[in-house]
Design brief:
The protein starts with a helix and ends with a helix. It is mainly α. Helices cover about 80% and strands about 0% of the residues. The radius of gyration is 27 Å and the shape is elongated. The protein has 2 domains: about 120 residues, no CATH class; about 120 residues, no CATH class. The longest helix is centred in the C-terminal third of the chain and has 55 residues. α4 runs parallel beside α7, α5 packs parallel to α7 and α7 runs parallel beside α9.
Length: about 280
């Protein structure tokens, strides 16, 4: 569970409730019809935009938004270095016995390709395709919340317009005007709150989750290709460290290029020292 995200949600909602209570009661801000307009309209727009398959992913994505970003990069680095040392001592075929012990499915696939002697160019293409497919799958889920965050304020405004129209029909009754205006504005409040406390923050969190996942998979791909290339485990460790230290904010492809540069530089320094 991502503690910071949960704390942020609790604190944000708590401050809003406190502000509402400071001027009256929560019942003042409760209107089931307004909530139905906003939630019903938002869900309808999301269903039209993304289809039933993505709609079914919403509960899981909401849970995922409050989970820690996947991938223990330090643990994966240690696993990759263990594989590199074993491959250097006993050969690539010796890694087959350890495939099932690896916790990361992507790492399992990559090691299996090593054991199956898949050519480097083909392996890079296959692993990159898996990374791209994972990114596309994640982006579709993020798009659901982006759409919801974009349309919920609009449906809040639609609800407000509906309330104003109904209010204008009772102009001869001054008491109904104030009540109708309050109900109309509540709909806008619901749409704005849902967009800025639920939908947009969750979309941002899922985007961060996606970046971390792609970064981790790119590190695995580069580490496996380095093992296949027979590079020294010390050079591989430097390459992996570049992914962990100071590279997380970069695009995965840029991080991979920088990691290759670091590894090449270290190898050059080693050769120079041997001379």
């Amino acid at each position: 569970m991502e503690l910071a995200a949960l704390i942020g949600l609790v604190v944000g909602v708590g401050l809003l409730v406190w502000a509402m209570l400071s001027g009256g009661t929560l019942a003042t801000f409760w209107d089931p019809a307004s909530l139905r307009i906003v939630l019903g309209g938002t869900l309808a727009a999301v269903a039209i935009s993304h289809g039933g398959r993505q709609m079914r992913r919403i509960p899981g994505l909401m849970i995922k938004a409050f989970q820690k970003s996947n991938g223990d990069m330090t643990g994966l680095k240690d696993d990759l270095l263990d594989l590199a040392n074993q491959a250097r001592r006993e050969g690539l075929l010796s890694l087959e016995d350890h495939v099932e012990d690896l916790g990361d499915p992507f790492l399992q696939d990559a090691v299996q390709m090593l054991v199956d002697a898949v050519p480097p160019e083909q392996m890079r293409e296959l692993l990159a395709n898996q990374i791209d497919a994972s990114a596309e799958h994640n982006e579709r889920g993020i798009g659901v919340f982006r759409t919801a965050g974009a349309v919920s304020p609009a449906f809040g405004m639609i609800g407000t317009l509906i309330g104003l129209i109904q209010m204008l029909r009772d102009l001869e009754n001054p008491e109904m005007i104030g009540l109708g205006m309050a109900v109309a504005l509540i709909t806008t409040l619901y749409g704005t709150l849902l967009a800025n406390i639920v939908f947009n923050p969750m979309a941002n969190k899922l985007e961060e989750w996606n970046r971390d996942e792609l970064h981790t998979k790119t590190m695995i791909m580069e580490g496996i290709l380095a093992i296949q290339d027979g590079q020294n485990p010390r050079f591989i460790e430097g390459k992996l460290e570049s992914f962990i230290n100071g590279q997380a904010s970069k695009d995965p492809e840029e991080a991979a290029r920088d990691a290759e540069t670091v590894s090449t530089a270290e190898e050059g320094e080693s050769v120079a020292s041997d001379d």
